[in-house]
Write a structure and sequence with these properties.
By secondary structure, the protein is an alpha+beta fold. The chain contains 5 helices and 12 strands. Helices cover about 30% and strands about 25% of the residues. A 6-stranded antiparallel β-sheet has the order 7-4-9-1-12-11. The chain has a 4-stranded antiparallel β-sheet with strand order 2-8-5-6. Strands 3-10 form a two-stranded antiparallel sheet.
């Protein structure tokens, strides 16, 4: 049997049930997720159930984007985003550069003193290992909620800066995020080469063949299928995640 094809575009796909934990600022009738940004990966949401909002901080300042079934929202690296749950909000998440988010391409909006101290940042961001026997591991849930609340404290300060300065108010966060992930770049390059870069190179090569009437790449046609990872959904940044190994 031939090797299975890579998933289109070298992206990752997950399904996320947004946290129903109330937040101190009262956002969302049901709760909200953890505000954060990605330094390399773009992210897209396809809403499949419930309703809510994604709050964003970007070069155009603060914005709110309503979410309801059938809505699609996407954003580029550097945009701070926070999911707000008004009831039963579930989304399919598509991430570019599959493997990078799992390898650390997410920086939470902790207060600036934590962002500038890599050891304290990592300690605050780390979650305990989830017990495979428990559908809802209370230790992990408590740690994820503490992490969310700490990020919300920094997010409130960040919003004040963005309200006053516009996109320039994100400069300190972006600088700190870059320093936090700089050491991961060699690992990330390998992930991109094996994923998104390989997918793009395959498309470019196929176009080169087709331009001269060649169809050799079609002889490699194969099909792949995957079931979701077994076990309970993981605790992610903004909700419980069901993932696939694509």
């Amino acid at each position: 049997m031939k090797n299975p094809p890579s998933f289109p575009g070298g992206v990752s796909v997950s399904r996320r049930a947004v946290y129903d934990w109330p937040a101190d600022d009262g956002a969302g009738r049901a709760g909200s997720g953890t505000p954060h940004l990605h330094t390399v990966s773009s992210e897209g949401y396809v809403v499949v159930a419930g309703e809510g909002t994604v709050q964003t901080l970007g070069q155009d300042g603060y914005a709110e984007h309503r979410l309801f079934p059938g809505k699609v929202v996407w954003f580029s690296p550097g945009v701070v985003h926070r999911l707000v749950n008004d009831g039963g909000l579930e989304i399919v998440v598509v991430m570019s550069d599959a493997g990078l988010p799992e390898a650390g391409d997410a920086v939470l909006t902790f207060p600036q003193d934590l962002l500038e101290d890599p050891e304290r940042y990592e300690e605050a961001a780390r979650l305990p290992d989830q017990s495979p026997e428990l559908t809802d591991d209370p230790r992990v849930a408590a740690a994820a909620r503490r992490r969310r609340d700490l990020a919300l404290a920094g997010y409130a300060q960040l919003r004040e800066r963005v309200d006053a300065e516009g996109g320039a108010g994100l400069a300190e966060l972006h600088a700190a995020a870059g320093l936090l992930v700089a050491g991961r770049v060699p690992e990330w390059r390998a992930v991109v080469r094996a994923g998104a870069e390989r997918s793009t190179a395959g498309t470019v090569a196929a176009l080169g063949e087709l331009a001269h009437g060649g169809v050799g790449h079609l002889s490699d046609a194969t099909v792949a299928a995957r079931a979701a990872h077994a076990g309970p959904p993981r605790y992610g940044m903004c909700g419980r995640l069901t993932t696939w190994a694509l």
